[in-house]
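PROTEIN DESIGN WORKSHEET
SECTION A - STRUCTURE
LENGTH: 296
TOKENS:
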């Protein structure tokens, strides 16, 4: 990252549907990154597990065949693309680390094609149609921020969205923005009664991370129905960027493939933190209990 980092940086969020053909999805993602770069994006973030449909809807040992090493075939493709376009790419992959050890991993590819960093999803859900504990070993690299050609960025993944601790620990490392590659949607049977409140909670908690940390937050979700008719999951899109005071700068629809291009201003971080100095007023001497499971 240059010593004198410009105030402004532009991000691109790729919200897309996925087919059952991994090569087709990678080809589509490459085309979307090219489009985002042509529209001025300097950092492009793809959705969670963009290479495939969301396979965690079922437990099947055969689906471990989707996993690949890092570096590996998909990072090679994205690395060449990042270098060609001169952009940073955040790519979420099913990482095969060793036989029987796989992770839900986000790779940050720098504008020269090198790997700037790797983050392994820390919080692993286990809910109906979200059977991630069957596939993913919990992350063991901790929370990280990565220096790139266009600034210092933090990356967390999907279920991490609900945990303020991860956002805080990443922000404290000097990130300008938190990216959340995501795959979240409605159970069709619940959408009518619970859908609006579920979406609102998802949006609200992440806006809270932006406010509490005085930082930009970008959530990148997929769209489309995956699974059998009348069942499966309907991914709700609504990818968005919130500024350091939680203001929604831009938001996608809940059904269409879109690329959001958003200009972010580091001076906004400074402005918000001067007027709402939450980092200054933190009582770091009083938080010992946070590492305990329960305090009663």
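SECTION B - SEQUENCE
RESIDUE ASSIGNMENT:
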């Amino acid at each position: 990252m240059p010593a004198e980092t410009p105030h402004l940086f532009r991000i691109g969020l790729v919200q897309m549907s996925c087919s059952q053909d991994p090569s087709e999805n990678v080809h589509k993602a490459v085309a979307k990154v090219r489009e985002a770069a042509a529209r001025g994006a300097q950092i492009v973030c793809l959705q969670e597990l963009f290479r495939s449909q969301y396979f965690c809807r079922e437990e099947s040992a055969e689906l471990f065949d989707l996993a690949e090493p890092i570096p590996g075939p998909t990072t090679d493709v994205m690395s060449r693309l990042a270098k060609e376009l001169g952009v940073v790419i955040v790519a979420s992959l099913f990482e095969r680390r060793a036989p029987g050890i796989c992770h839900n991993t986000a790779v940050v590819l720098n504008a020269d094609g090198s790997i700037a960093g790797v983050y392994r999803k820390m919080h692993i859900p286990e809910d109906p149609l979200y059977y991630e504990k069957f596939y993913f070993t919990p992350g063991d690299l901790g929370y990280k921020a990565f220096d790139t050609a266009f600034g210092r960025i933090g990356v967390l993944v999907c279920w991490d969205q609900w945990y303020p601790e991860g956002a805080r620990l990443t922000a404290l490392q000097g990130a300008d923005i938190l990216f959340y590659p995501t795959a979240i949607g409605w159970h069709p049977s619940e959408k009518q009664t619970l859908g609006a409140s579920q979406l609102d909670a998802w949006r609200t908690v992440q806006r809270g991370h932006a406010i509490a940390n005085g930082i930009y937050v970008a959530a990148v979700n997929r769209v489309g129905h995956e699974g059998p008719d009348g069942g499966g999951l309907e991914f709700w899109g609504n990818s968005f960027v919130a500024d350091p005071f939680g203001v929604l700068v831009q938001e996608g629809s809940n059904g269409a493939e879109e690329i959001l291009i958003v200009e972010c201003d580091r001076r906004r971080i400074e402005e918000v933190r001067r007027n709402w100095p939450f980092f200054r007023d933190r009582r770091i001497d009083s938080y010992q209990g946070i590492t305990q499971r329960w305090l009663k």
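SECTION C - NOTES
Residues 188-213 form the longest helix (26 residues).
The helical segments are 22-38, 73-85, 164-171, 188-213, 266-275.
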